[in-house]
């Protein structure tokens, strides 16, 4: 299917389809779009694309890609596994998904999960340490203070400071 026909099929603009093709998201066979494979890639999209056109009526006539497990038992005399065409389509879909992930990572839509976990753990550790340090910082001040309002104010000030530091650390993630 051509890009124009595919744009009509998906209910989107032709420039949007050209952008997807340029970024390697569409599964192409020469200059034509493999409709079933590309529909599978686009329908499996994990995050909303802010550059995508507004959602409209979309007819998805895509057939799911069938693997050897879906095909049932292999008749006697035939080899198990997908045909060459099915294997090629599966490989193209896989490559298109990888290119889409790389593209979205470069756009800043996706981040490294392990790096995020480390940064989040560091932020929460700093928050915990800050809260646990409040008694050490305020013990002498509170012990010397007889006015309950001043004790309350000192505690509130320190807790607020720690919460703001934690908030800033989370925003920096």
Radius of gyration: 28 Å
Q: How many DSSP H or I helices? A: 6
- Please provide the count of β strands: 2
**Mean pLDDT across all amino acids:** 79
How would you sum up the major sheet?
A: 2 strands, antiparallel
Sheet/helix structural class: mainly alpha
Helix content: 55-70%
Number of domains: 2
Strand order of the largest sheet: 1-2
Shape: rod-shaped
* Straight-line N-to-C gap: 43 Å
Beta-strand portion reads under 5%
Q: What are the secondary-structure elements, in order, as H or E?
A: HHEEHHHH
Identify low-pLDDT runs: 46-50, 53-72
Architecture overview:
- This protein is an all-alpha fold and 173 residues long.
- It folds into 2 domains: 3-107, no CATH class; 113-171.
- The protein is built from 6 helices and 2 strands, in the order H-H-E-E-H-H-H-H.
- Helix 1 (3-10) packs across helix 2 (14-22) and helix 3 runs parallel beside helix 4 (84-107).
- The radius of gyration is 28 Å and the shape is rod-shaped.
């Amino acid at each position: 299917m051509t890009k124009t026909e595919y744009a009509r099929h998906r209910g989107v603009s032709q420039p949007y389809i050209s952008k997807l093709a340029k970024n390697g998201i569409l599964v192409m066979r020469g200059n034509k779009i493999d409709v079933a494979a590309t529909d599978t890639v686009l329908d499996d999209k994990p995050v909303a694309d802010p550059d995508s056109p507004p959602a409209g009526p979309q007819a998805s006539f895509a057939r799911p890609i069938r693997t050897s497990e879906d095909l049932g038992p292999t008749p006697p005399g035939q080899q198990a596994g997908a045909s060459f065409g099915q294997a090629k389509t599966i490989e193209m879909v896989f490559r298109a998904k990888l290119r889409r992930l790389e593209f979205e990572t470069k756009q800043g839509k996706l981040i490294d999960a392990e790096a995020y976990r480390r940064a989040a753990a560091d932020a929460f550790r700093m928050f915990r340490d800050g809260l646990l340090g409040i008694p050490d910082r305020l013990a002498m001040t509170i012990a010397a203070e007889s006015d309950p309002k001043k004790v309350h104010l000192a505690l509130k000030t320190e807790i607020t400071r720690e919460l703001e530091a934690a908030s800033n650390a989370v925003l920096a993630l």
